[in-house]
Design goal:
It is a single chain. The N terminus is likely disordered. The protein contains 18 helices and 8 strands. A hairpin with an 8-residue loop joins β2 and β3. With 464 residues, the protein is an alpha+beta fold. Bound molecules: carboxymethyl coenzyme *A. The site of carboxymethyl coenzyme *A has 21 residues, from loops.
Length: 464
Amino acid sequence: MSHDHLRKEVDESGGGSILRRYSSPVVSAKTSVSMKYELKNLATGKVAELNALSGTLGPDALDISHLNRDLGVFTYDPGFMATASTESKITYIDGDAGVLLYRGYPVEQLAAQSSFLEVANLLIHGSLPTNAQLREFQTSITRHTMVNEHLLRFFQGFHHNAHPMAMVSAVVASMAAFYHDTMDTHDPRHREIFAHRIIAKLPTIAAAAYKHTLGQPFIYPRNDLSYCANMLNMFFAVPCEAYAIDPVAAQAIELLFILHADHEQNASTSTVRLAGSTGANPYAAISAGVSALWGPAHGGANEAVLDMLDTIGSAANVGKFLTRVKDKSDSVRLMGFGHRVYKNFDPRAKIIRAMCYRVLDKLGIGNDPLFELALILEEIALKDEYFVSRKLYPNVDFYSGIIYSALGIPRSMFTVLFAIARTAGWVAHWQEMVSDPHMRIGRPRQLYAGPRQRDYQPIAARSA
Ligand code: CMC
């Protein structure tokens, strides 16, 4: 492409480089190239051409992979605010419009009509399964729910008040020790067995962590129950009496799992991809994802929201609390509000909010004080200039904890449930990455700001 195709200057950096945009008919084998941009070092006149890659939806992404070769510079983008780390066909988010699609299907439609296992199958395989395919998948997941007895004994090593996320992360990583020799990441059948095992066993591991904190005996999985009903049974049944699974509870969990199943290149999914890109055992990569999810800025927010509501205590204190949130010298944030991608209502939050009403009504606690406080907080925040100007809306975690809490699930388990659901997405992304013949190890660069080279000083020669 010659430089005569220059169309429009789109950006200028103070660092002496200029970025121009060209139209281009060039199409690569992988992704179509819609435009070419030119990045010029204004001091030397040296120019690099950058392809703008077009996906099926969303903004183009500049291919900067040859930038260092062509201009001897890297790009700098802390927090990946403007960097696409990969091409992916799994999930699409339009944060301004509040759109979330799994393999092209709106999450609202899946939430209303699908099941978690169907969604997991969709995420992994790319299209909705036939009846026979879904049955086969469900049967395989059901038959993989038990975990090795030796693995269960690991829980004995944890203190009774260990955080369940720490236990789940450790036990999932330990699965690598059980399945290392039978896990060839280049073998599609091995990858499939891994996918089924991890999706099937996560609820069992989560329930074992919960039972350990209670000091109750572990309840084995039941193959006659659905995925979510089985999880509830493992959580709440005890050997000495019958446990009736509430269909409303199972339905609410199913819905929450569908909504949490994937969210493209979020922090935990990127962690799974990065760890997996080294060729690491995938159970270890999923464990890394569990750890990344735990943070309060990510999946740990559902737990933090309820702690926050407790701290606020009552509607009378909302104003005082929001004053703290808006004070930049105070580190307090309105948990469950804001999102890196959504600058509009999180579509998942809208669905969960409606589910909240249904669950609380069905359980006869429609006037749950925490929910009422959350609604007041939401109403005030949505009218407040601080939140309006920053486009901060309630996210998925603002309400999910209220539902989990109403179902009797303790706070420390909220993020574990998020991890069970997100495992479907992590697996789909790991599969997509390792089956790509162009896969490379993930290895970002840095802008070094430390000391220049200096000579070692013997300790006696150092001043205090
Ligand atoms: N409370 C108060 N101020 C906020 C909040 C909040 N929850 N979120 C963002 N802001 C402010 C922030 O201080 C900044 O203001 P300014 O421009 O004056 O410096 C501005 O909004 C932009 O925020 P940011 O931190 O640059 O945005 P980010 O994209 O880096 O962070 C976030 C996204 C989700 C980490 C952040 O909104 C947050 O901490 N929210 C609370 C935690 C939370 O609910 N997390 C769950 C996310 S949804 C579940 C998931 O997918 O993980």
